[in-house]
Amino acid sequence: MRTYEVLVEAGQVLQFRRAVGELDAPLEPEGIAPPTFLMAADLFDPEYERRPRAGREWPAAANRPAGGGAGFHAEQSFTFHRHPRAGEQLSATVRPGRRWEKDGRRGGRLLFTETITDFSDPSGELVVSASFVSVGTERKPEE
Are 34 and 47 in contact (CB under 8 A)? Predict the structure, then answer.
């Protein structure tokens, strides 16, 4: 489990709203962030693998599962207890979720891993819970 801070800054909320098609969105210093705004919260996480770092190559392919094989992002969901507002500082707590396996149709095993991030306000009230599911593949040896 790890924790990091996320600032819901009004200028970033405005940029995000315009990027998702609200072209005339006004700057609202205490406005509500769009539902998927917290997708960008990973950039506040000092341990996030795809976060750019000085002196390192761009980590574009870091979404690989442990142990090799191919991997991909399978699902993202949010549970809102209330909407985050511009100007808030949220604490993000990342914890492991479920893990499961399934036989794939092409002869390999699929390995599912869920990561849950809970976003809380300074009083400790839970604001949003986000679930991220990644899938790794494991190929069976050729016979």
Answer: no
